[in-house]
């Protein structure tokens, strides 16, 4: 996409607004499938939590992808997008047995990450095959909030509990048709990731009815020029070769599965916001925009970096700005960042806004969630309307109070 395209979208649909480039999503999907082309059977489950707009899910369906879901509602969204139930994997954490049973009744692949629920589910539904999520005790993610495979993580069944897991499977006569792991987001060292896969291969060999091994995801994307990213081609070559050897030793071919989210949609997304005020203080120049962490919380939550470009004045002289929001708390998107000279009314474009951005928006300060636009074949398509006050009030139930009765 060109900056003028983004400016046109901001003018037509207002700001703030999220924009997604469909062509970038397709190219990332094709890059991933090409990297693992040596695998005889490959399944990509797109992680719905990254960006759950129905139009995005339909795009992945057209590409042939399945879906990785973590809630009943994400499953329902996937089915609404037309994705077949058997192409959806459901990997919850800490949910009730009732929700898992409800999803299982839809024909979706269940992935269980704790022994208690595994035993309960296997005792009641021994004929429904399940996948089990293993915690390999490997720290392969970035920020602690998104590293989920280490020993203190709440996710997965510890590798040290495998004997107990096997007893449950034997006692309930249930079938385990898949094993799964997810070490966390922002994998920098594929050597560490490959070490974790060896643990998963060793575990997988203990089950005789496997149909797939799911290696999760967490592939790191670049956030700025010169940034380190997961070498997906190198990983694809090494892991495909190792996977094919496992299949040969296992005695039959099974499916290699991944569940990427950020890798597929992060770089396709832009967040556009208008500068309301340029404020000079004794030490800082603030660019205050018409948004806040109610629309983009990742910099405040994870300390994540989003490139920011002034698309209204791309060729202007670079100056230092702290880009901040309008929320009644500190919501700093960037501190002392070099950006081409900003004036009030300019449109700033935040990069890498496709993953975990809109999906984490809120109505904090009673602000509306922004619109979403899909850029496809040179045209902008509105795929979610901006909220209104009617949306804010929709589910509120006013109660008539007689003040004198409370005194």
Folded structure, characterized:
Helix 2 (22-35) crosses helix 9 (232-250), helix 6 (115-124) packs parallel to helix 7 and helix 8 (190-204) packs parallel to helix 9. The protein starts with a helix and ends with a helix. The chain folds into 2 domains: 22-264, Alpha-Beta Barrel (TIM Barrel), CATH 3.20.20; 266-388, Lyase, Ornithine Decarboxylase, Chain A, domain 1. Helix content is 30%, strand content 23%. It is of the alpha/beta class and 407 residues long. This is Diaminopimelate decarboxylase. It catalyses: meso-2,6-diaminopimelate + H(+) = L-lysine + CO2.
If you consult CATH, what is the topology of the largest domain? TIM Barrel
The level 1 CATH classification of the largest domain is Alpha Beta
What is the chains' assembly state?
single chain
Determine the strand fraction and express it as a percent band.
15-25%
Average pLDDT, to the nearest integer? 93
Total count of helical runs of at least 4 residues? 13
- Give the helix level as a range of percent: 25-40%
CATH level-four homologous superfamily name of the largest domain: Alanine racemase
- Output the structural class: alpha/beta
- Termini Cα gap: 61 Å
Largest sheet: 9 strands, mixed
Low-confidence stretches: 141-150
Number of strands: 18
Number of domains: 2
The CATH architecture name of the largest domain reads: Alpha-Beta Barrel
Rg from Cα: 23 Å
Which overall shape is indicated by the principal axes computed on the Cα atoms? globular
């Amino acid at each position: 996409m060109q900056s003028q395209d983004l400016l046109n979208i901001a003018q037509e649909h207002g700001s703030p607004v999220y924009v997604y480039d469909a062509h970038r999503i397709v190219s990332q999907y094709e890059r991933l499938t090409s990297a693992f082309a040596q695998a005889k059977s490959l399944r990509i489950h797109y992680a719905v939590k990254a960006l759950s707009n129905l139009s995005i899910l339909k795009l992945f369906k057209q590409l042939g992808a399945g879906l990785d879901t973590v809630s009943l509602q994400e499953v329902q969204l996937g089915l609404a997008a037309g994705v077949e139930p058997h192409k959806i994997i459901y990997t919850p954490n800490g949910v009730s047995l009732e929700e898992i049973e409800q999803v299982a009744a839809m024909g979706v692949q269940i992935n269980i990450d704790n022994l208690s629920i595994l035993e309960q589910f296997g005792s009641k539904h021994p004929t429904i095959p399940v996948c089990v999520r293993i915690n390999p005790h490997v720290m392969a993610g970035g920020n602690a909030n998104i590293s989920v495979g280490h020993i203190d993580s709440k996710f997965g069944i510890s590798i040290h509990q495998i004997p107990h897991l096997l007893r449950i499977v034997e006692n309930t006569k249930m079938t385990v048709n898949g094993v799964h792991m997810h070490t966390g987001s922002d994998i920098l060292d594929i050597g560490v990731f490959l070490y974790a896969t060896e643990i998963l291969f060793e575990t997988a060999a203990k089950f005789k009815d496997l149909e797939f091994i799911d290696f999760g995801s967490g592939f790191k994307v670049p956030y700025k020029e010169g940034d380190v990213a997961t070498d997906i081609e190198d990983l694809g070559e090494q892991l495909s070769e190792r996977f094919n050897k496992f299949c040969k030793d296992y005695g039959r071919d099974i499916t290699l599965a991944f569940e990427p989210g950020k890798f597929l949609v992060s770089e396709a997304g832009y967040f556009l916001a208008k500068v309301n005020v340029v404020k000079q203080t004794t030490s800082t120049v603030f660019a205050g925009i018409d948004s806040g962490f109610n629309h983009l919380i990742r910099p405040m939550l994870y300390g994540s970096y989003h490139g920011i470009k002034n698309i209204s004045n791309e060729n202007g002289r670079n100056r230092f700005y702290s880009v901040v929001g309008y929320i009644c708390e500190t919501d700093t998107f960037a501190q002392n960042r070099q950006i081409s000279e900003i004036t009030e009314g300019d449109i700033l474009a935040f990069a890498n806004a496709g993953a975990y951005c809109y999906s984490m928006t809120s109505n904090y300060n009673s602000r509306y969630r922004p619109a979403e636009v899909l850029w496809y074949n040179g045209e902008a398509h509105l795929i979610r309307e901006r909220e209104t006050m009617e949306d804010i009030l929709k589910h509120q139930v006013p109660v008539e109070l007689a003040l004198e009765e409370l005194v």
